[in-house]
Design brief:
By secondary structure, the chain is of the alpha+beta class. Helices cover 47% and strands 22% of the residues. It contains eleven helices and 15 strands. The strands form four sheets. A six-stranded antiparallel beta sheet has the order 4-3-8-7-6-5. Strand 7 and strand 8 form a beta hairpin. It is rod-shaped. Bound molecules: adenosine-5'-triphosphate and magnesium ion (MG). The site of adenosine-5'-triphosphate (ATP) has 22 residues, from helix 10 and helix 11.
Length: 437
């Protein structure tokens, strides 16, 4: 009788599925009947014999023992599978109470928390991609219990119990018994922190490589673009030399030769910078910022453009507010910037027009302005003129739409800002300021 009582108690204590319960319940009922007591019968020999009911109960008891052994074996197997799985596994019941978690889950989270219901899932801390912290309702486990949602391969950034951060890739599904009743939910997740770190590093390296390629392309475009100005001066000066064959023209030959020399030096410097920068992998345009007299810069800028202006029948004049001013800059780059502004002014001003290069002090800076009496730029187009490859009339005049982008990069490289003001039909003014030396 004691054995029966203990078998019954074990049955009641066991965590059984609905299906198990259906099998076990008749056995429990039989045990109860036996425990209530039935008179023993005697056989023909007068000895006490077990009646058929007790035989049934005895058989049931053996069945229960066998089921317990089997169940212990199955649990052993299940336990081995769970705890040797490299992936974390969490199981909760229909109320969100955590019923089971394997070793990998504890390892991935660097600890664990007691979860008595859905509200306790907040003890497991995680973050959305935008940095918001997870609410208990955000967990796939809760979504699964509330709405039957099945989650497949969801990436979540977690904060482990030791305070460190990591990434998991998790799936979650509801658990039903054979009658379709919701028993709970299971979540299976892998630690992908290392993989994510490698991916982030790969993306960073790719960005660095792309940026390096882009810088090199920019540099090539910029240098080849800006080689055109000194080249046109060379071409024109060479033309003058060819025409000046008379000995009395020696002065003109000498002047043209000097121009050719300077323009060639300017081209040579651009090419040297291109090669230097390419070899440094850095695309830096501003090389050396030192003090330079404004007069010299303006003289050089004019020297390159006055012949072009004369050729186009445009008046080009400079106006320097104060003599003896100096600025802190990379001289070649500022000349490059002025060459782009003057080149545009020449290109967009009709014959008979005028261009002014004005320089005057503003606070502790010196402002340079290139003003023309050309066709002007429509107000809605003005903000776009500094965009790379932008042109008001694409392809209408020779050019790439790079000049103002380059000018802006140079001014910004000096810590300044370039501005454009314009009125259709009346002309345009580009200005920028550089630090006074
Ligand atoms: N002074 C100006 N007057 C009128 N429009 C201008 C002037 N400067 C620039 N623009 C407009 O801005 C556009 C962009 O100028 P940007 O110097 O960047 O390129 P581009 O002169 O067309 O070509 P590139 O300078 O590469 O030879 C020009 O195509 C033109 O539409
Ligand atoms: Mg231009």
């Amino acid at each position: 009788m004691d054995a029966l009582r203990s078998a019954r108690a074990s049955l009641n204590d066991a965590l059984l599925s609905t299906e198990d319960r259906r099998v076990i319940e008749p056995i429990v009922a039989a045990i109860d009947q036996a425990l209530q007591g039935r008179p023993a019968t005697h056989n023909e020999n007068g000895s006490e014999a077990l009646d058929s009911r007790e035989l049934e109960v005895e058989a049931a008891r053996r069945e229960v023992e066998r089921a317990k052994v089997l169940s212990a074996r199955e649990w052993g197997l299940l336990d081995a599978v769970l705890n040797h799985s490299p992936h974390g596994i969490l199981v909760c019941n229909a109320a969100g109470k955590m019923m089971l978690q394997n070793r990998a889950a504890e390892r991935i989270w660097a600890g664990s928390a007691t979860v008595e219901g859905v509200g306790d899932w907040g003890k497991y801390r995680a973050y959305h991609p935008d940095g918001r912290a997870f609410e208990p309702d955000d967990w796939s486990m809760t979504r699964c219990l509330r709405a039957g949602e099945v989650t497949d391969a969801e990436e979540v950034r977690i904060q482990r119990f030791d305070g460190t951060h990591g990434m998991i890739l998790g799936s979650c599904a509801p658990l039903f018994d054979i009658s379709g009743e919701l028993l709970g939910a299971v979540s299976i997740f892998a630690d992908i922190s290392q993989f994510k770190r490698a991916e982030t590093e790969r993306e960073r390296l790719l960005r660095v490589a792309q940026e390096a390629v882009r810088m090199r392309e920019d540099l090539l475009a910029i240098v080849s673009h800006d080689l055109r100005s000194p080249l046109s001066v060379i071409a024109m000066a060479a033309g003058h030399i060819r025409k000046a064959v008379e000995p009395r023209e020696l002065e003109r030959i000498d002047s043209a030769a000097k121009k050719i020399e300077r323009a060639a030096r300017s081209m040579e410097k651009l090419i040297r910078d291109l090669l230097d920068t390419a070899s440094k992998d850095a695309g830096r345009l501003i090389a050396e910022i030192t003090s330079h007299p404004v007069d010299e810069i303006i003289y050089d800028a004019l020297e390159m453009h006055v012949p072009l202006a004369n050729e186009a029948d445009i008046k080009l004049e400079a106006e320097i507010a104060e003599p003896g001013m100096s600025i802190r800059c990379d001289r070649e780059r500022v000349l490059q910037c002025l060459a782009n502004l003057l080149g545009n002014a020449l290109k967009f001003t009709p014959r008979g027009g005028a261009i002014g290069l004005q320089v005057h002090p503003v606070g502790d800076t010196i402002e340079f302005a290139v003003r023309d009496s050309g066709e002007g730029i429509a107000p809605e187009q003005l903000p776009r003129v500094f965009d790379r490859y932008w042109q008001a009339k694409r392809g209408s005049r020779a050019g790439a739409g790079l000049g103002l982008f380059i000018a802006k990069s140079i001014v910004e490289g000096h810590g300044g800002e370039i501005r454009a003001e314009s009125e259709i039909g009346r002309g345009t003014r580009f200005s920028f300021a550089l630090a006074r030396a």
